[in-house]
Design brief:
The protein is of the alpha/beta class. Helices cover about 25% and strands about 30% of the residues. It has helices at about 20-30, 60-65, 75-85, 125-135, 170-175, 195-215, 230-235, 265-275, and strands at about 10-15, 45, 50-55, 70-75, 90, 100-105, 120-125, 140-145, 160-165, 175-185, 185-190, 220-225, 245-250, 255-260, 280-285. The two termini are about 35 Å apart. It binds phosphoribosyl ATP and zinc ion. Phosphoribosyl ATP (PRT) binds near residues 78, 163, 166, 168 and 169.
């Protein structure tokens, strides 16, 4: 661990290329942080925030952050738990969502984790799989392989696999079925233990921006027209940040209602609003949301 007494900027490690790269760069942009030079370099400076970005392989990010070579990193939770480094998760980032699952050939019957007793499991995640097996009281042989885990049963290398799944199509195409989810993952912001006070403040500013971007993504701004005699019912359907804004329309007897809706309840509430007499419903994405 490196003490950073002198350092007055944050050094952020992100994936150089791969599934998390684009979303990591996009999140920085949405946080209003401009990165000056290209990804072909090892590192780049932000032009409008005290931030330096290192482009690394995702597997190396926890080690760099633990060692204090980078102060913070964006990386999958799956990698953090597998590498078991001394880093703290400061914020979930809401992208790179996937699950680590056990899968077996689709013709086989499966009723519980006891199926795995004495079997061979191929995986790139031996630490997480081992923990899972211990919790289940199952003894199995783990074959660590670094890629194309899904072909292992087909070539007789293993009876089961444990790999990351998002859509499930890789398993399907390889004649496998998902039987247990052992870990749910998404990209997270990790930090090293020895941030100096300036860096702690910078990290708070960055997390504040990330939270505003995340909140905005989960919410939509809604505008609608309502006959005044239905206003009470319509307003009762709208949660909003405080209470909805109600403005009179030029047409007598009508009002315009503005509010914020959570993505999860969205369609449900829209249907109820229509039934309650709302018209001209407009739904607009929100760029940032500061509470
Ligand atoms: O080169 P580098 O080492 O940096 O990258 P990498 O090849 O090790 O990682 P990469 O880019 O494949 O993944 C980076 C991170 O993305 C992972 O650590 C996860 O946190 C996250 N992530 C999210 C995924 C997936 N979804 C995912 N589906 N990582 C891998 N997959 C693979 C999975 O291994 C399997 O081969 O996609 C396939 C399954 O996908 P579906 O959609 O067919 O189910
Ligand atoms: Zn990797």
């Amino acid at each position: 661990m490196k003490a950073n007494i002198e350092c007055n900027k944050l050094r952020l490690a992100i994936q150089k290329s791969g599934r998390l790269h684009d979303d990591s760069m996009k999140l920085l942009k949405e946080c209003g942080i401009d990165i000056s030079n290209g990804v072909n370099k090892l590192k780049a400076e932000a032009t409008n925030f005290p931030l330096e970005v290192f482009f690394l392989r995702d597997d190396d990010i926890p080690q760099y952050v633990e060692d204090g070579v980078a102060d913070i990193g964006f990386v999958g939770e799956n990698v953090i738990f597998e590498k078991n480094k001394q880093v703290a998760i400061a914020e979930k980032l809401g992208f790179g969502k996937c699950r680590l699952s056990i899968a077996i050939p689709k013709g086989q019957d499966y009723s519980s984790s006891q199926f795995l007793q004495g079997k061979k499991i191929a995986t790139s995640y031996p630490v997480i799989v081992n923990n899972y097996l211990q919790r289940q009281g199952v003894t199995a042989e783990i074959h660590e392989i670094s890629g194309s885990v899904e072909i292992a049963p087909g070539i007789g290398l293993a009876d089961a696999i444990c790999d990351l799944v998002s859509s499930g199509s890789t398993l399907f195409m390889n004649g496998l079925k998902e039987v247990e989810v052992i870990f749910e993952s998404q990209a997270v912001l990790i930090k090293q233990a020895a941030l100096n006070p300036t860096q702690v403040q910078l990290l708070e500013r960055l997390i504040f921006r990330i939270q505003a971007v995340k909140k905005a993504k989960n919410n939509k701004y809604i505008l609608l027209n309502a006959p005044n005699d239905r206003l009470k019912d319509i307003i009762s359907l709208l949660p909003g940040m405080k209470s909805p804004t109600v403005l009179p329309l030029a047409t007598e007897g009508w009002s315009s209602v503005h509010s914020v809706l959570n993505e999860n309840d969205f369609w449900n509430i829209i249907e109820q609003l229509k039934e309650a007499g709302a018209e001209g419903i407009l739904v607009v994405p929100i760029e940032k949301m500061i509470m």
